[in-house]
């Protein structure tokens, strides 16, 4: 009896999920995408610049056929076989690579990190994208703040940083545990690069997990979109004029991707930003209204993603303080004021 109840719930969730996304993507694309979401996740390994074990596949402990992911410039290898655990470098005790989806590295390359940048990784745990940021950033000339609200995940983030950064530089990475939606948690006029890798519906994980699928309803993606909007609006206010934000999710939902960008751009309370996603080219994936998305049924290289990202640049605000006060006094803007209740749990 109990078993069939669980099965029913899973079927209801799955039906709602399929109906929602076949409407967004159209029947034909959705069928191909849905199938590809079931493929085993593809992995690549991003080499750690702080490790001296970076000479060849054998030294790295990788299969002989592991090769550079062509659409990336950072040293990142992939192969058909599963990638084994990284090994520790005897000389400075760091791990030699980090295993992650190559599309995540693409999002970091879109942030165009320079050695002297002051970077905020707003939602950083477990830390894969922070490790990718460090591959470009100098921890001597630049700064990196890795923020994560959830305490268990924050602890994991700290552990990952100690595993990948040599002891001498560990104090240069500032790990904080603040709500990324609250502007007063972060200094003004300091960061010139911000990554908002927002909590999202993780649809590939969902289709491979029947228990979570049983809980799926459209409200889930709509609620997440509100949290995502509050994080992005905070980042827009905190990035310096001329600075860059990459907003990313591993969701396929328009509501969590372009929908959030659209609301953030229209938000009168936030700072002014323009979308600059198209200023560079990306090897795989496809354009969306404001961003870029890598889906696992990609025509060129199947299996990576889903990963959506949008690149935004802050500009001088065209709206004067008085105009802002006049127009904002009598309107409530969706999501922006709502802090994450998680902090108060
Ligand atoms: C997609 S994950 C980040 C993955 C990470 N960037 C990486 O590459 O390993 C999103 C993270 O945001 C955290 N989060 C959720 N709400 C937050 C908030 N208000 N402020 C900061 N972090 C938050 C979640 O706990 C989760 O760890």
From TrEMBL:
Chain ranges of the SAM-dependent MTase RsmB/NOP-type domain: 33-315
Any GO BP: rRNA methylation
Keywords carried by this UniProt record: Methyltransferase, Mitochondrion, RNA-binding, rRNA processing, S-adenosyl-L-methionine, Transferase, Transit peptide
Active site: 250
InterPro entries documented for this protein: MeTrfase_RsmB-F_NOP2_cat, MeTrfase_RsmB-F_NOP2_dom, RCMT, SAM-dependent_MTases_sf
Feature: compositional bias, Acidic residues: 323-345
GO cellular component term, pick one: mitochondrial large ribosomal subunit
Reaction catalysis annotation: a cytidine in rRNA + S-adenosyl-L-methionine = a 5-methylcytidine in rRNA + S-adenosyl-L-homocysteine + H(+)
Positions of S-adenosyl-L-methionine binding: 123-129, 148, 197
GO molecular function term, any single one: RNA binding
Positions of the UniProt region annotated as Disordered: 321-345
Subcellular location: Mitochondrion
Entry-linked Pfam families: Methyltr_RsmB-F
PANTHER family membership: 5-METHYLCYTOSINE RRNA METHYLTRANSFERASE NSUN4, NCL1 YEAST -RELATED NOL1/NOP2/FMU SUN DOMAIN-CONTAINING
UniProt family annotation: Belongs to the class I-like SAM-binding methyltransferase superfamily. RsmB/NOP family.
Protein name: NOL1/NOP2/Sun domain family member 4
């Amino acid at each position: 009896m109990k078993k069939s109840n669980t099965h029913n719930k899973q079927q209801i969730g799955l039906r709602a999920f399929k109906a929602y996304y076949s409407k967004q993507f159209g029947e034909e694309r959705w069928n191909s995408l849905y199938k590809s979401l079931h493929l085993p996740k593809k992995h690549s390994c991003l080499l750690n610049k702080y490790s001296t074990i970076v000479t060849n596949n054998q030294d790295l402990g990788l299969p002989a056929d592991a090769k550079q992911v062509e659409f990336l410039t950072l040293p990142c290898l992939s192969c058909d076989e599963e990638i084994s655990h990284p090994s520790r470098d005897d000389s400075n005790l760091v791990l030699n690579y980090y295993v992650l989806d190559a599309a995540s590295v693409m999002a970091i390359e879109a942030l165009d990190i320079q050695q002297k940048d002051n970077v905020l990784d707003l939602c950083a745990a477990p830390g894969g994208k922070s490790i990718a940021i460090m591959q470009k950033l100098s921890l001597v000339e630049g700064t990196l703040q890795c923020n994560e609200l959830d305490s268990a995940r924050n602890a994991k983030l700290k552990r990952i940083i100690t595993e990948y950064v040599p002891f001498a530089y560990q104090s240069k990475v500032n790990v904080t545990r603040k709500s990324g939606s609250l502007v007063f948690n972060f200094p003004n006029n300091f960061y010139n690069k911000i990554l908002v890798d927002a909590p999202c519906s993780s649809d590939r994980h969902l289709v491979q997990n029947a228990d979570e699928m049983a809980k799926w309803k459209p409200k889930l993606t709509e609620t997440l979109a509100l949290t995502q909007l509050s994080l992005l609006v905070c980042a827009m206010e905190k990035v310096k004029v001329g600075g860059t934000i990459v907003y990313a999710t591993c969701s396929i939902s328009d509501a969590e991707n372009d929908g959030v960008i659209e609301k953030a751009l229209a938000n009168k309370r936030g700072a002014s930003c323009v979308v600059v996603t198209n200023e560079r080219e990306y090897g795989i994936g496809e354009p969306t209204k404001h961003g870029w998305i890598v889906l696992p049924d990609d025509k060129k290289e199947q299996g990576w993603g889903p990963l959506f990202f949008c690149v935004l640049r802050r500009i001088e605000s065209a709206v004067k303080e008085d105009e802002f006060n006049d127009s904002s006094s009598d309107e409530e803007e969706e999501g922006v004021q709502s802090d994450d209740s998680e902090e108060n749990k």
